Each structure stands twice: as C-alpha cells, then as structure tokens.
Amino acid sequence: MNQTIDLLMSHMSIRKFKEKNIEEEKVRAIIEAGQWAATSSHFQAYSIINVQDPHKRQLLAEVTGGQKWVTECPLFLVFCADLHRGKTSWEGFDPKVFGNTEMFIMATVDAALAAQKAFIAAQSLGLGGVYIGGIRNDLRKVSEILGLPELVYVVFGMCLGYPDEDPGLKPRLPLEVVYKTDSYDESTDAERIAAYNKVVRQYYLDRTDGKTKDTWSERCGRNMMAKTRDEIGEFLRSKGFCKK
Ligand SMILES: Cc1cc2nc3c(=O)[nH]c(=O)nc-3n(C[C@H](O)[C@H](O)[C@H](O)COP(=O)(O)O)c2cc1C
Fold first, then answer.
1. Ligand 1 pocket check: which of 130, 166, 199, 203 to mutate, most ligand atoms within 8 Å of Cβ?
2. Is the domain of 32 the same as that of 123?
3. Which of 29, 158, 199, 243 has its CA 20 to 30 A from that of 54?
4. Which residue, judged by its Cα, is nearest atom 14 of ligand 1?
5. Is position 218 within any domain?
6. Residues lining ligand 1, CB < 6 A?
C-alpha cells in the first residue's frame, strides 16, 4: 500500500546480529523517534537506558535465562516506566496518586509506545531486533544492576543491530479474530483459531525440519506457564506502584 505499511508488515524478531556497531547518529535518531510517540497527558513517563557496560550486559543476560543476543547485540536498550521524574519535577499534586494503578498503566503504556516507535525507526534504518521480556524474570535484581529509584521499573529490554539472519514472517491471527465491530462477537473465533493453529503448526514444522509441531494454542499455554513471575505484583508495590 505504501512504504510505511510495507515496513510495518515485514516485522520479524532478529536475534542474530552482524559485528557492526550502530552509528551514533542512528542511535540518537532511534531514541528521538521514540520520544515522538504519543504520551498520556504529555507525561512522558518512561526512561530508556542504553546498557553498554559488558559486565552489566552479562548480568542482565543471566536474568533473561541466558539469552545470548542480550550480550551479542550492538545496542541493548532497557525501557522503564518512570513516575519518579514526575514525582520530582511536577507541581501541585498529591503524592499518593503516584501509587494509583491508573498511573502505573499510563507509565507502562508510555514506555511501550516509545519503544515501538524506536523499534520501527530502527527497522527503517536497516536494523533489526527483538524485545526482551525475559528481563522481568528478576525485576529486583535488574533494578539493582541499573540503579533504578522508587517509581521506576523495567518493562522490557530491546536488542538492536544489523540483522545476520532472516527468520521469516511469523503468521498472525486472522484479522477477524482480533478486529470486531460494535461488540465483542466471538462466534466465529474458535473455528478461525483452529484453522490458524494448523497454519502455525506448519510454520514450525517448516522452520525446524519437522522437529517442532506446536500449534499457537499449545505454544502460548506453555510459554505462559514457563514463567509466571508471581512476585512482580509485590515488587511493584515495593517500588511505589499499584498501591491502590
Ligand atoms: C514485550 C515483548 C517481550 C518479548 N520478550 C522476548 C524475549 O525475552 N526473548 C525473545 O527471544 N523474544 C521475545 N519477544 C519476541 C516475541 O517472541 C516475538 O515478537 C513473537 O514471537 C512474534 O514473532 P515476531 O516478532 O518474529 O513476529 C518479546 C516480544 C515482546 C513484544
């Protein structure tokens, strides 16, 4: 349809990178593009940490369960939801409101929107990457490694670099399953998801020389149970989030 939509619809996570640094002006353009994301009430309630220290990278990779692209990628960004800046620079507020779950949602959404803009900007510059939710395996440790104050938490990391693989497009759900008109009509979802499960099974069979034959439903259920991160709620409250 146009170049922007073509770019958006050619997304694939990249986990293998060329040994080539990303030019500094490109790094800055990626971050600035992220900054131009829409933001709740102009709060800009996020911070982005570029982790360059190899030791810290190693520690963070360990937290993710040994995802080696965290140490191998030329650029590793950590996206934080950040209400700390607001608490220290906004005026005329009741500090208790920072503990509202609504504020937590706003900061988390702000971080995610900035990240996705940054990701797309990177892709437009010929780069590729992958989000790293695995960094939430131990938010307390990550918080210590990065020296995060109260009211800041890590939403996810992001590996970026020049791609050294072409993993192919991973099929998405049928549009009708995610896109509804006027109300949540799920009457045809089960049938469509059953068909989609077959597509995803074939995708994994093709990609793994027949070794993996997961459907989407099987894989999602397993992934969900693999890391339930039951301690995150308590950790967030200890950082001042989600008190009510
Ligand atoms: C918030 C978020 C966290 C993710 N965390 C990880 C991760 O820790 N490790 C990883 O290899 N991929 C991670 N991914 C990548 C997803 O697995 C990937 O986007 C999904 O399987 C779809 O594949 P695609 O991006 O190639 O289309 C994450 C993606 C998102 C959006």
1. 130
2. yes
3. 29
4. 131
5. no
6. 11-13, 15, 64, 67, 130-134, 156, 170
Is the distance from CB of 179 to CB of 185 less than 8 angstroms? no
DSSP string covering 75-142: EEEEEEEE-HHHHHH--S--GGGGGSHHHHHHHHHHHHHHHHHHHHHHHHTT-EEEEEGGGGGGHHHH
Question: Which residue has the least CA distance to atom 7 on ligand 1?
Answer: 132
Q: Is the pTM of this model over 0.85?
A: yes
Enclosing domain of residue 201 = 175-205
Do 133 and 40 fall into the same domain? yes
Do the Cβ atoms of 27 and 50 come closer than 8 Å?
A: yes
Could you tell me how many residues make up the chain?
Answer: 244
Question: Does 76 share its domain with 142?
Answer: yes
User: How far is Cα 77 from Cα 79, in angstroms, rounded to an integer?
Assistant: 6
